[in-house]
Amino acid sequence: MLAFRCVVSLAVAFTSLGAARAQATWYVDASATPPGVGTPASPYASIQYAIQQPTTLSGDRVLVAQGTYVETVRFLGKELHVRSTSGAAATVIDVSTLGDVGVRFVNGEGPGAILEGFTITGADPGFGIGGGVVCSSSQAELRDCRIESCGGLGSSLVGAGVAVVNGSLSLVRCQISGCSTQTDGAGIYASGGVLRMHGGSVSNCTTVYGTGAGLHAFASAIELANVQFAGNVSMESFGGAMYLRQSNARVVDSEFSNCSVLQDHTGGAAQFDASVATLERCRFAHNSAARGGAIDTVAGLLEVRDTRFEHNIAESFQAYDGSGGAVFCAGPAYFTRCEFFDNESRPGPSQSGLGGGARGGVFDRCTFARNRCDPSNGGAGAAAADALLRSCIVWGNLPTPLWSLYNSSSSYSDLEKPVLGVGNISSDPLFVSLAQGDLRLNALSPCIDAGDALGGSDLDGSRIDMGASAFYPSYGSPAVTYCTAKLTSNGCAPYLTVNSAPPSVSGGYFEVHARSVRDNRPGLLFWGTAPAATPFQGGTLCVSNVNRTSIQTSTLGAGLPGCAGLYSYRWTSAYLASVGLNAGAAVHCQFWFRDPSASFTVGLSNAVQFTLAP
Q1: Residues 573 and 516 in one domain
Q2: Does some domain include residue 402?
Q3: Angstrom distance (rounded) from CA 264 to CA 542
Q4: Which one of 7, 39, 219, 587 is most buried, counting C-beta atoms within 10 A?
Q5: How many Cβ atoms are within 10 Å of 39's Cβ, its own excluded?
Q6: Distance (Å, rounded) from C-alpha 568 to C-alpha 496?
Q7: 49 forms bridges with which residues in the sheet?
Q8: Selection from 258, 211, 217, 216 nearest residue 235 by Cα
Q9: Last residue of a domain, which of 413, 448, 471?
């Protein structure tokens, strides 16, 4: 009995000791006199010195003052939150003279390892994996960081900007730019890992011989939400913005622009090789390649929804035929409610390119307009080739409508040249403005309620319309997002989207969605008639004269665990009338929700502004 009491007493004592130690905060300042003791009065002079101190333990915070830190940083297995006090613009980890990696998570760090608010620049060990940041067999998170000018055109570094290998890495509102290498993944490289990127951008990254100048992923799980890829170039290989091989990917609310592959390769923005990928609400513009100006698929499975392809070009100078101005599909590919506008397929040296908009694929409720193909063969497949179309519009493709489709079948579609098929018509769809690329329908369009009756219904319950954009009596102005979201306690970056219905007083179908939030959490919508930018509960209140809707609970949607929640609020005609909002009123709104582990136990999305149409 005595021995048992001793054991219990020791257990209680150790428990009390563990509970007694609160989270410690250590301070670093580049201008301090080294080495310092980590207090506000005598801060450490080095980030790495602060991390390696035996008194710095997992769960602690390291606060770093503005300045330039010429050093490399390694977390040494500790789950620390290393945060700058003045943000990335004023706090720099400069590795340009060290010939080394900038930041390493390579000692089995757990999900509490966070780096926030730094610029990492000039990292180039010359070869190996990872330049600016490497995460190997660990879990880590970067928040509001910039990774700039890492690697070089002469470097053999894989993943010059960021690399994750057999680990899990989250990039939240991070910007990766100007990174380059001769090999794969100048911006980001992922192998056997999980990469989540919410917000931020990958821009002006270049690979000479490798694939995926912006992002290269092999055997990895990828989630990209609200990310911008711009100006990335693969000079002598595939996938200007992104190359995925044997990977699973979900890409939502993202944009790919001005990305390209040179030297007669394919997939100007993205190449999917034996991968399973879902793309939703994205935009591909001004991308180019020898085949698949925006997207090229090789085996695997691709699903694309509510996405616009415009001004993409496929042009071959050697081996390829310049097919698929926007998309080339060698594997199964399904497109729903997508727009293909002003894309072009140019001929190769030995044969004519086909499919100014697309070659291959299955298309449901898509619109093809003003796409172009090789005029030497009459413009065969100016809109699409080797494709299956249902409830689509094919109109105004060049140089002649006689060959807008090549080796394709269609049903319940509006085709400029009459083609046999159940439910097909050949009448001007009456776009709002073909010249300006506005492919919505006006009130007299013959495409209204003319799609496949078995293909579901529009939001108003009527038979689906042909084409990518369902008809509404009044469209109103596009909604515009603004303000900055407060990160959730587990690193989600909430953001707002709207559905395809216009914000109309009479329609009652317009919805605002908050995405990338935690599921099963109570929340509600704030709204007002003017914007704001007021510090509030650890974040920013983006709305003036706040009104509140009723409480709802976030549902579980698609996405990686922890950030797959969804809030939705529909602006019904009855509610608008009850609060006195009429046509012409400007409305500003953001979501507020419970987040027990966050400061003030709440979360805040960014905001969206819209003007009510009649």
Answers
A1: yes
A2: yes
A3: 48
A4: 587
A5: 11
A6: 10
A7: none
A8: 211
A9: 471
Residues 124-129: what's their mean pLDDT?
Answer: 93
pLDDT of 15 strictly over 50: no
Name 15's Cβ contacts closer than 8 Å, sequence gap at least 6.
none
Q: Mapped to the 3 state alphabet, what secondary structure does 244-284 carry? A: EECCEEEEECCEEECCEECCCCECCCEEEECCEEEEECCEE
Task: Give the pLDDT confidence score for residue 438 in this predicted structure.
Answer: 96
**What confidence category does residue 119 fall into, taking pLDDT thresholds of 50, 70 and 90?**
very high
Expressed as residue numbers, the domain containing 344 is 264-268+278-471
In degrees, rounded to 5, the angle at the alpha carbon of residue 119 between the alpha carbons of residues 160 and 115 is 90
Domain end residue (candidates: 436, 471, 506):
471
119-133, 376-390, 587-601: range with lowest mean pLDDT: 376-390
Closest CA to 78 of 100, 51, 104: 51
What pLDDT, on a 0 to 100 scale, did the predictor assign at position 276?
97
Whether 572 is covered by a domain: the verdict is: yes
Q: Helix, strand, coil: what percent of the chain each, to 5? A: 5, 40, 50
DSSP secondary structure of 513-563 = EEEEE-SS-EEEEEEESSEEEEEETTEEEEESS-EE---EEPEE-SSSTTS
- Cα gap 330→183, rounded to integer Å: 25
Residue 185 lies in a domain: no
Q: Would you state the pLDDT for residue 322?
A: 80
Task: Decide if pLDDT at 351 tops 80.
Answer: no
CA-to-CA distance for 311 and 259, rounded, in angstroms? 12
Total of domains in the chain: 2
Position 373 in a domain: yes
Stretch 578-606: mean pLDDT: 95
